[in-house]
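re the bet — no i am not wrong, look at it urself. input seq straight from the record:
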Amino acid sequence: MAFWFVLFIFGFLIVDCQCHTYDILKGIQDSVLKNYTRYLRPLKNQSETMVVYTDLMLNSIQNFDVKTGTLKTSIALNLVWKDDFIQWEAYDKDMMAFQLPRNQVWTPTMILHNPAEGFELTTESNSVEKTRHFYNGTVNYIITGSIFTVCKPYIFHYPMDKHSCDIQILNSHYQENVVLKSLRDSVRLDHYMEHPEWLITGTNVSTQLVHGSITEISFIIHFSRKPEFHLINVVLPITFLSALNVLVFVLPHQSGERISYAITLLLTFVVFMNAMADELPPIGDPVCLLNIYITIQMTMSSLIVFFTIASLSLYNNDDKRKPVPAKWKVFAYYAGHLLCLKFESDHDYDIQDIPKLNEVYPFEDDSDSIKESPPHPYESLLWKDVGHATDKCMFVISCLILICDTSVYFVCIFLHIW
C-alpha cells in the first residue's frame, strides 16, 4: 500500500512540474512577442549590422543535366543569428529553448543568385515553418528542399569529365545591413546519399560582395562522372570499330564484300555521332574530345571507302586488258619491297640493279650498235600487283593514324591534358 502511495505522489509531482514548465514557457512566449515586430531586424541598435551565419548540408545530387546545364540538389541550409528581443532566464534545461511560427518572427530572406527554376529559398514549400529560439537569443532556422541551379558543364574529357558547380546564396536587397557568414569552409556531407553516376571529389565555400553591399556565399561542389558505363558502352565500341575499319584492305578483292563492309562501318560511325549529339550539350566551348575522335574516325572511314573503290578499279583494269603505265609499276615495285610484298609476277632483282627510266647506254668499240639494256624488274608487274601494293600501303597508313589518334585520345581523357 505504501508503494502505490509513493508512486502516486511521484506521478503527481511530475505532471505538476510539466504543467508548471508549460505555463512558464507560454508566459515567456506571450511576453517576448507582445511588442515584437517581424518587419524590423531584431537589434536594439538598428545602426548595427545583422550577422547571419550559414551552414549548408548537401543531402544528395538528384540530377545533373549536362545538356541543359542544370543541377538539382537536395539541401538543408541552416541559418543562425542573434535576436536581442527574444531572450529569457532559463531555470532548468526544459526552459532553454522553444519554437515559434516563422511568420511571427523576423527571418532573413534568402535567394538564389544562379537559379534555374525559382529564386527564393525561404518559401513555405521548402522551409521549416518554425524557428527554434534559445534563452540567450540565438535563433536557428533551417531551409530544406530541392533546388535547381545553373551550372556550366565542362565536357571536354567526357566520359572522364569533372565539374564544379556552385550554389550561390545571398540575402534579399530589401533587407539592408544583413551580412552572411559561413560557419565552415566546406559543405557538410554528413547525410549525403551517393549518386549512381556522379562522385563528389571535394567542396569549398567562398564569400564575396555583389551589387555593392550584398553578401553572396557560394557553396562550391566538385564532382566527377563515374566513367565505367560510358567506357564500356561508348568508347570501347568506337575503338573496336575503328580497328575493324582498317581491315577492309585485308579482305580479298574477289570476295565482293569490300565496299559494303566499308560503307556499313561508315554508317555505324554516323549513328554514334548522332547518339553523342543527343547526349551532349550543343556548345562549342570546348568541343567534347570524344566528338573530335569520332569525327576523325568517320573521316577516316570516308577516305577508306574512297580508296577501297579506287583499289577495286585498279584490280578491274586487268580484265579490261589495259596496259600498266611505268609510273604505276615503279610505285608498286618500290612499295612492295618497302612493305615486304611478294608479287606473283616479280623477278629476282636487286634493288640497286633497277635502271633509270629511258637510260641510254654508251657505245662500245665505236660501233653503231647500242648495248642491249637489261630488262626492268618491274616490267612484268600487272594491275593486280599495283592494287595489292595500294592495299598494303593504305592498310599501314590507316593503322598508323588509328594508333596515333587513339593513343592521344586515351592519354588526354585519363590524364586530363588540356
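see?? DSSP finds six helices and eleven strands in the chain. told u. also The longest strand covers residues 50-65. so pay up
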